[in-house]
Amino acid sequence: MCGIVGIVSDKNCCDYIFDGLRLVQYRGYDSVGICQKDGMQLKIDKAKGTIEKLVQKVEPLQDTKVAIGHTRWATHGSVCERNAHPIEGKNREWVVVHNGIIENYQTLMCEMQKEGEVFKTQTDTEIIANLLSFNNYQNPIENLIWAVRKLQGSYAICAVKKEQENCIYAAKYKSPLYAFCNQDIAMLASDPICFPEGDYYKLEDGELCEVKKGEIKFFNMHGEQIQKQQLKYQKIRVMADKGSYQHYMLKEIYETPEALERLIKNFVNFDFKKLAKYKFKKVKLIGCGTAYHSCLMGARYFIKYLHVDAEAIFASEFRYDDYVINPQTLCIFVSQSGETADTIAALEKAKRKRAKIISMTNVPYSTIASLSDVVLPISAGVEIAVASTKAYSCQVAGLYLLVMALKGEKHFNRAIKQVQEVILASKNFFVNMSAFAEDISQKEKVLFIGKGCDYITALEAALKLKETTYINCSALASGELKHGTLSLIENKTPLIVISTNKKVHDKVMNSALEAKSRGAKLYLISFKPPKICELENFDFCLSLPKVCQPLLCILAIIPLQLLSYNVALLRGLDPDKPRNLAKSVTVE
Ligand code: M6R
After folding, report:
1. Which of 227, 300, 421, 526 stands the most exposed, by the fewest C-beta atoms within 10 Å?
2. Closest ligand 1 atom number to CA of residue 389
3. pTM of this structure
């Protein structure tokens, strides 16, 4: 899930690469590199860490006309300059950047080592660079086809050849790659967000291209030239700006109300009649991480309001485990990026079993969207911070609206009004969490409890806090505390209690007090202010604005997202780029 950018232009190649890398660094940010080409001269610079470190280091060549850049999320080999891309093959004849995983690289490497080839990095990518140099066909596209035919796994590759003037060669299989061309420049990138205004191309699996200034030629795996349709440019780049906020994460939490407003607009215009023909008996909601948590919420809505057998499943489990899936199954894939490898593989499996496929994604041009029968865009706007915030709220609201639309017009209209109430309430609900955060930032473990949908909010809050602060967090259905986890409670262990359902409020309180008796420090997020007699039990209490119960979870997660953000800052961490992670997980 690295980020790739390539450019052919008469001027400013390095600047284009740096700007592009800044926009795709959400895909991985442990190291970064660039290769510039000026005639036959190839110059490679790399840095461990940020793009700015690389920028400081790079001296543009006198007349760079081609450049490829890469921001890495390590899969094979440690994080160091040597393993950073671009990676060169023998005699620097070819230099490549790669996103994906070459699963058979060790076998191929052994074969090549027997032929005397020397490998200098620990990466799977080096095999691509060496294969390209190994069998030097006259036509570079033939060369690339010969090389990628040997690969198993996934790849988006951009490659430059020393002896070929001003050209980039690219290939795509199961990792995203886009191309752009106008009179002045031609570009390749992992995300069209890097391109200037103008329509662009999406490469499909098994497609290759040759990119020159003002011209892109596309090929299939037989080396035949193919024609491709352009995709309409959408004004996304301007939105990928931090504005006056210190971090994307904070900006994105604050964008929740406007994101929900956009979601409503799109859902009101959506033709739900398309779904009426779907006669389904069971629903599977599939996603990873935060998206999986919205699936859990969605499954509850299907069961409660449509009385349909619904289940949320991790995409990484769905793809390998046994589930009863048939044409009467409706599979809903939830993914902010629309590029998560596990979710794509799960979707492909559901398709093979002839299930009906709906996807709910934030990226309408994504792979998941393109593979689905019906796409419901969540319209959250670009989300850059690794921690997903506004997208989660839109996914939950979107699943609720979908269920209400399936239930019938009257319910859908009422649901729209309910989401509008949430938007209004959320506008004044960006509470100050600094005192609470101060307390939590000192801890090394935090527990969250809730019941029903509050348990799901607890799961999501725990994921957010551990992801951004590295504090060990667990979430439990409150009734489960006494079945094992209570043993973790020591003096002042923080227990964050989420309670938005008055029917089970007392039950949740009982579990909280059982923990309190054993030393836990309690913090409460609840649908109502605590009674005077309850107050002394809690170190912090927050009551949520009054909105309809099923959507209260959207408000409950906001202070918990802010808590994660504030704790990260207090611990001196960058909340936008937690260690070891990447925004879009495009490898298994
Ligand atoms: O792009 P997706 O929604 O498919 O991503 C799924 C997860 O990787 C993602 O939600 C992850 O858990 C977030 N970083 C959590 O904040």
Report:
1. 227
2. 16
3. 0.88
